[in-house]
Amino acid sequence: EFKFVSLQEAGLDGETLKKMDHDALQALPAVRAKQQEAEAGLTRYQEKLNNKFGDVLRLHRFSVVAVGFERLVYSQVESFSPKTTP
After folding, report:
1. Were both Cys, which of 13, 38, 50, 81 would link to 63 (CB 3.0–4.6 Å)?
2. By the 8 A CB rule, do 29 and 81 touch?
3. How many whole angstroms separate alpha carbon 5 and alpha carbon 74?
4. 86 belongs to a structural domain
5. 3-class SS at 73?
6. How do residues 46-75 score in pLDDT, each as one tens digit?
7. Does residue 83 sit within a domain?
8. Number of domains in the chain
9. Of 77, 72, 86, 84, whose CA–CA distance to 31 is shortest?
10. CA distance 62 to 43
């Protein structure tokens, strides 16, 4: 799942952004919000695909947030176990 944060949303300029370390970049409120949106979208997509195809696909889930055109923040999102009903 891909999300974009503009420099204006991040409240930074490109030069400052380039100098930030990964942890500081990931801690930005705008980046955290987009990561949460991406993870929610991934959960919805995986649930729909699991309902349609079962566990055959063995999907891996990643959230990617572009901050301007300067930086990327990405993470692998843990898979969930589909809910089963008795």
Report:
1. 38
2. no
3. 13
4. no
5. strand
6. 889 888 988 788 888 999 999 999 999 999
7. no
8. 1
9. 72
10. 11
Per DSSP, the three-state class of 10 is helix
Residue-averaged pLDDT of the chain: 88
Phi, psi of 63 (to 5 degrees): -105, 135
Please state, in angstroms and rounded to a whole number, the distance separating the CA atoms of residues 69 and 67: 6
Of 62, 76, 71, residue with least CA distance to 1: 62
Query: Any idea how long the chain is?
Result: 86
Residue 15 placed within a domain: yes
Which amino acid, residue 44? R
Chain position carrying tokens 């997509």? 45
Supply the range of the domain harboring residue 14. 2-77
pTM over 0.90: no
Residue 81 sits at φ, ψ, to 5 deg, of -90, 130
